[in-house]
Amino acid sequence: MAKVILGSRPDTVSLKVKFEHLDGTKDVIRIDYIYRTRREFAEFIDANIAQARTQSEQNPVIATGDVGEISQVQWIDKLDSNRADYLMQIMQGWDLPQTFDRSNVLLLIDEYPQVVEAITQAYRQAISEGRSGN
Fold first, then answer.
1. Tens-place pLDDT, residues 33-47
2. H or E element in which residue 99 lies
3. 3 state DSSP class of 62
4. Which of 7, 20, 24, 57 is the most buried (most CB within 10 A)?
5. What is the rounded CA–CA span in Å between residue 63 and residue 110?
6. pLDDT in tens, 59-107
7. Listed residue (127, 65, 67) closest to 91, CA to CA
8. What is d(CA 25, CA 38) in angstroms, rounded to the nearest whole number?
9. Average pLDDT of the chain, as a whole number
10. CA distances from 14 to 17, 81, 119, 128 (A)
């Protein structure tokens, strides 16, 4: 008998996200993601794109990538802040010993930039393609 019950959906979905450290060793973080249907995920992406366009119109330096007017540190801070905002919108927790909050998400982005791509890719695949992990 099928265990699928249409209209009954979880609030979160937990996935093990695999990534590689800079030295080549492999690691796994369990991420508790906010569940979205495929359509909700598409709406979420559309809203993020619209927000990015608005920010680009308001700040052409960010849009063009011409960092001549700002320092490298300011550029990275803005980029990492945007990434943290995105991760806070897709995640609800993790199995790291540190508390899941924006300041620790920023620390993760700064210390383990390769993990950000793994986290976002695992979520996109799970929600839009029905594939778990990366």
1. 999 999 999 999 999
2. none
3. helix
4. 20
5. 22
6. 655 555 555 677 888 889 989 999 999 999 999 999 999 999 999 999 9
7. 127
8. 33
9. 87
10. 9, 24, 11, 15
CB 30 within 8 Å of CB 91: no
Q: Could you tell me which residues come within 8 angstroms of residue 108 by beta carbon, excluding any fewer than 6 positions away?
A: 96, 115, 116
Q: Could you give the CA distance from residue 35 to residue 9 in angstroms, rounded to a whole number?
A: 8
Q: Do residues 28 and 17 lie in contact, with contact meaning Cβ atoms separated by under 8 Å?
A: yes
Question: DSSP assignment, residue 93?
Answer: E
> Tell me, what's the pLDDT at 40?
94
Q: Which two tokens stand for residue 126?
A: 């799970």
How many residues appear in the chain? 134
Query: For 18, how many CA atoms within 13 A lie in the half-sphere containing its CB?
Result: 6
* Identity at 51, one-letter amino acid code: Q
